[in-house]
TrEMBL record:
Record's protein name: OsmC-like protein
Superkingdom to which the source organism belongs: Bacteria
Organism placement in taxonomy: Bacteria, Pseudomonadati, Bacteroidota, Flavobacteriia, Flavobacteriales
Cited InterPro entries: KH_dom-like_a/b (IPR015946), OsmC/Ohr_fam (IPR003718), OsmC/Ohrsf (IPR036102), OsmC_Ohr_Peroxiredoxin (IPR052707)
Pfam family, one: OsmC
PANTHER family per record: OSMC_OHR FAMILY PROTEIN, OSMOTICALLY INDUCIBLE FAMILY PROTEIN
Length: 158
């Protein structure tokens, strides 16, 4: 087995002067960075006193699942001779909050909208979503189902 190593830095930027002296006395703002990459501004979900203008961990999880799936999907399409000209996914997920305040995702659904060059490519293009899910590193790392509801369009029919 081959191992790959990743490193990110999270830096809390929400100290309003008194640190975490009280639940309402600090912001949930932080930055996410990695060497030689643009910084991402993060916070918690607004339901947990976060800044709605910044990405929250739940959105980042959805984005990770969606982008991993897309990258594998495009790879398999290129190998199969399926010409994808556009790809958009509006991922959605359900997180259940428990009585003690913790929580967990119960499912994520990807809604990839894929445009292919020719109608003859539609059937195989639909099938390759299953293969992409089997190979996606992130989907293989979570303990909830990652569902797919793809829509395949033909370039000339858009």
């Amino acid at each position: 087995m081959k191992n790959h190593h990743y490193k990110t830095t999270i830096h809390w930027t929400g100290n309003k002067g008194t640190g975490t002296s009280g639940y309402r006395d600090y912001e949930r703002s932080h930055t996410i960075s990695a060497e030689n990459k643009a910084m991402i501004e993060g916070s918690s979900d607004p339901a947990f006193r976060g800044d709605r203008t910044k990405y929250n961990p739940e959105e980042m999880l959805l984005s990770s699942l969606s982008s991993c799936h897309m990258l594998w999907y495009l790879h398999f399409c290129s190998e199969a001779g399926i010409i994808v000209t556009e790809y958009t996914d509006e991922a959605s997920g359900i997180m259940a909050e428990t009585a003690n305040g913790s929580g967990h995702f119960t499912e994520v659904t990807l809604h990839p909208k894929v445009t292919v060059a020719e109608a003859s490519m539609i059937e195989k293009a639909e099938q390759l979503h299953h293969k992409a899910n089997e190979y996606c590193f992130i989907a293989n790392s979570v303990n909830f189902p990652v569902k797919h509801i793809p829509a395949i369009l033909v370039k000339s029919e858009k």
